[in-house]
Write a structure and sequence with these properties.
Helices cover 57% and strands 16% of the residues. The chain contains six helices and six strands.
Length: 181
């Protein structure tokens, strides 16, 4: 793992040097993911790109370089000036009303298409609140559906059964009264 981290760090530093940035990147590893954190510079906007596209491209390049050089760990997460961290926090807060809506209505909610990293955040937040999620679609149309959990559906069905049982009991009495007449 240590060799993979060193290679990934050096590779990204070399890539950034082509843009005139000679900076030290902070590299760590969590589980099987290499975390590369690029400090804030005058080129943040350029390196992040529109909606993080350039940052994801850098991440892809580092990951591909690891794969091509037969390193054991190839999953990489590149964050520039804590962009992903702040985006994660904003999206987690944004997901709360969606979660409450699903809990209150008991019906699933289809979200707008989003990238894989954003979908992962929604999956995680929904799971923390006891809901299930599913990603459907392909490419740029891939999106998350937040669903009530199986447990919530079972509880809801048992409540419905109790409600349905009460009228049935009344109808039996009515039938008995008819038989007595």
């Amino acid at each position: 793992m240590e060799e993979s981290i060193i290679f990934a760090k050096k590779y990204l530093e070399d890539l950034l040097s082509f843009f005139g940035l000679n900076i030290d990147i902070h590299a760590t590893a969590e589980e099987d993911v290499i975390e590369l954190s690029v400090p804030s510079t005058h080129m943040n906007g350029f390196l992040i790109g529109q909606h993080g596209d350039t940052m994801r491209a850098l991440q892809y390049m580092v990951s591909t370089a690891l794969k091509n050089n037969d390193y054991e760990y190839v999953r990489v997460n590149v964050d520039i000036a804590d962009y992903k961290k702040s985006r994660h926090e904003r999206l987690a807060v944004q997901a709360l009303p969606w979660i409450e809506k699903v809990k209150a209505s008991g019906k699933q909610l289809e979200l707008q298409p989003m990238n894989a990293a954003d979908r992962r955040i929604v999956h995680k937040v929904a799971d923390e609140h006891g809901l299930t999620t599913e990603s459907i679609g392909f490419g740029r149309d891939r999106h998350v559906i937040i669903k009530p959990s199986e447990e919530a559906i079972v509880n809801e069905e048992s409540e419905l059964t109790e409600v349905e049982d009460k009228p049935k009991k009344k109808s039996k009495k009515v039938e008995e009264d008819k038989l007595e007449e």
